[in-house]
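Weekly puzzle thread! Below is a chain. First person to post its structure in token form gets bragging rights.
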Amino acid sequence: MANEEDDPIIQEIDVFLARSLLEKLYLFQYPIRPASMTYDDVTHLSAKIKPKQQKVELEMAIDTLNPNYCRSKGEQIALNVDGTCTDETSTYSSKLMDKQTFCSSQAASNVSRYAAAVYKKGELHLTPLHGILQLRPSFTYLDKADAKHREREAANEGGDSSQDEAEDDVKQITVRFSRPETEQARQRRVQSYEFLQKRQAEEHWVHLHYYGLKDSRSEHERQYLFSQGHGLAENTELIKSPSEYLMMLMPPSVEEENDKPMAPSNVLSMAQLRTLPLADQIKILMKNVKVMPFANLLSLLGPGADATAVLRCVQQVALLVQGNWVVKSDVLYPKDTSSPHSGVPAEVLCRGRDFVMWKFTQDRWVVRKEVAAVTKLCPEDVKDFLEHMSVARINKGWEFMLPYDEDFVKKHPDIVQRQQMLWMGIQAKLEKVYNLLKEHLTPKKQEAQSAHPLLVSGEQRVNMAKAKVKQNYGQLEKELQKQKAEMKAHDTSARTDVPNIRIKEEPVSVEEPMDTSAHEGLNNGLVNGLHTAQGSMDPVNGHLPGGCIDRVAQELKAFVSSTFKKQFVLTLSELKRLFNLHLASLPPGHTLFSGISDKMLQDMVLDTGCKQILVPFPPQTAASPDELKVYALWEAGDTYDQHRQVLLEIFSKNYRVRRNVIQNQLSQECGEDLNKQEVDRVLKVSFCSLW
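Winning reply:
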């Protein structure tokens, strides 16, 4: 309120919208000229326009008598352009540069928010602009001078070769037939710069008559900048709310909206997500996250979410596993879909994934080979199931990724009981489909019903080891006394031998408990043939000492970078073979012996600027899954980067391509004609490891 009192309204001005020059009014922006020469003094010799392109060309006279004009320079330019002879085609008939041409370019693609305003007698009249054009000097006369110079040189050379024209009567003519143009090639040609320039040049100029500032016709046209009628019927556009009025003057820019990056179809912001119904929100979240505690789901839905409604909706798209919600298989694999790896229909995939989920309701650990043996699915599909809800532990198997949610189980016993009934039905169906033996299922079922899976911390393991050592201490003491009795005659040697007998104890560390979940992302896969017995760091518990993680990542990144700079395209199988050879050359105890999983190796390949090329291999191929994964260095910084990227795009569409197709595609995309030898060299440099 204080600010409004300090800034009172001095005057109210009526605003009118003039429509007489609508879609006819342009704003010209002239370049800066000397202070001694204003545009009022300039004579416009001619003007022409291309209406479709909104391109204007003005020819203005230059004041050669102005003291700022350099006469010798003007004469030199006229001589260079027209030469010594003067005729009708001469640009400067006065042998002096006495005129200059200005060409326009669009200053803004969207001018709907701009208007020309005229203030008169307490009224403000606005006329929307149809275009804003910037005028810049055109130097086409220099091109004309170069063309005449080349013509004179050609004429001089032509006189010397006139005697040989009689001998060149018979000439060999090469006839070429153009191939039919494909739709893709036609679209590229239409969007090319050369085609657009040709289209613009084909539009004819429309010559205009220029009227000066003080001309009576200009004065007459200037009156159209004022609104012709002040009644309400003539200005209904301005009888609107302030927000609508501002929207009329400054509409949203179409260009700015188009320039906004489009998000992927499977990505939804939280703001957009909360505009959907509650059931759709939960389905999208569970489909993306796959495994989630109920507390996390409530926090993502916002503080206003009703817990009862969320529980009712989440049971439609997820199942309860160890107190956490896991998305249902039919949500991830809808009907009429198939596996991207093996082509197996969605119904078979849902049964296999349900079996994995059911196994996790019985135990925290699942063995991949056991799942593959029961479901008869390919290893890649089984790995996808396990990665949805578990984490790989070296030498142990796959562990469920979230801890047992005891709070949810205690708060919602009715939900837990209902989910147990659902799992009993799923178990009966799985027993029938996979012919599971009931004696193999009963013990695990009893364990699952008696108590939730037991989690043993690192400190508890150490205490258990110490207790075991104390139990064995008595037996070791008896053996020691027996040795003392046998060595009574040799007291001196006995005294020296007794201290050599030591009782092995497990290391006790209160500060660093042996928690296997500390660095679960580092060993999330199978080991690539490592010398685990030689290393100084023990990876059995699935993690490394904290200070070694960065060193391992740096060493692995250095290996991947140097390998792909030598061989630009590699399969995962070949990369693992080279990595094992690299390990064999390292000294014992090196940091890379700590255990590198397949997933860590693949993630490091993607982090170093490489891309995975999805080559469409045939379904009946005998290659292993690691041989079907192809990675390529996208930008190596050499002269073959563009050629290599074109080749990778070709092989991402077909695994087998003819050489002539590759040659034609390289010529079209790179803009140069490559012969057979050059194509072979590009293929050899880019795919030396695969050829």
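Puzzle host: Confirmed. Bonus trivia for everyone else. The mean pLDDT is 75.
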